[in-house]
Amino acid sequence: MAPINPVKLNLSAGLVSVLVAAVLVLLKLWALGETGALSVAASLADSAMDLMVSIGAAAAILYAARPADEDHAFGHTSAEDLAALGQAVFILISAVVIAAAAGMRLMSDAPAPLQAQGTGMVVMGVSIALTLALVLWQGRVARRTGSRVVAADRLHYLGDLLPNIGSLVSLWASTRFGMGAIDSVVALGAAGMLALGAVRIGKGAWDALMDRRADPALIAGIAEIARTWPGVHGFHDLKTRTAGSRVFVNLHIELDGDQTLRDAHAISAALRRAILNAYPQTDVIIHKDVAQ
Asked: Over the stretch 47-77, which tens digit does the pLDDT of each residue have?
């Protein structure tokens, strides 16, 4: 079975994200016309912003998928890190706004009562189902490709999913038990989770843009392959850096100086293939030195 292309997986996540956001905008436009509810209008505005962010993320993934050229010898994958950093800032600002609104509502002497109508509830249920399916798919793609922009877009939609579910729960609790404040409490919890996720993704994108080394576990795995590879007497200067979902690896191996160039090349090429098979997200350059 042929391995799935990570670029195609990332693109699928980006395009599905745009499609889901567009469907949600259309659904909430219809619900707003039917109900005239301000809560639906606010949700519509949020989905419209989601659509803009998803279009930007898909554009970044598409640009990052372009092959290397004369001006970008290492490819264009850093566009993913730039997009992820921008999304992290946007998510962090959103978390602060949500937390501030929830805090003001909790401190209000007469908090606005929760309202919902049948049509709006149906649309919210469909929105939750679509968003949940999208988040699950994006999570699977992010785990398989390591794309930060997909992970950031997933966090963004996860941030929408939790408050929507929380609003349904809080509406039920308010109606059943008169617990109107639970809506703001749920919003504060969601804002905290969003902020932590944004900081984590932003730090990962920043580290990649600053050429921070790859995951130590990946480095150790590559070192173990090189250390035990037949014909390799030693290695040094194992250096890595990340750009988007790609990891660039430079490695110097020490070979027998008496063997033919063809044999030395065969050992180096086989080692490179083994590293690529073990870590498909890598781009490997191996330098051959004479063992001392």
From this structure: 766 777 777 777 777 776 677 777 776 777 7
Q: How confident is the model at residue 1 (pLDDT cuts 50, 70, 90)?
A: very low
CATH number of the structural domain 6-209: 1.20.1510.10
**Residue among 274, 273, 272, 270 at smallest CA distance from 286:** 272
Q: Report yes or no: 39 and 76 within 8 Å, Cβ to Cβ.
A: no
9 contacts 141 by C-beta, under 8 angstroms: yes
CA distance 266 to 253: 13
SS3 36: coil
Tokens (6 digits) for 126: 């469909």
CA 216, CA 106: separation in Å to the nearest integer? Answer: 45
What are the tens digits of pLDDT across the range 192-217? 776 887 787 788 888 878 888 888 99
Residues carrying CATH 3.30.70.1350, the chain: 216-290
Q: What is the architecture, at CATH level 2, of domain 216-290?
A: 2-Layer Sandwich (3.30)
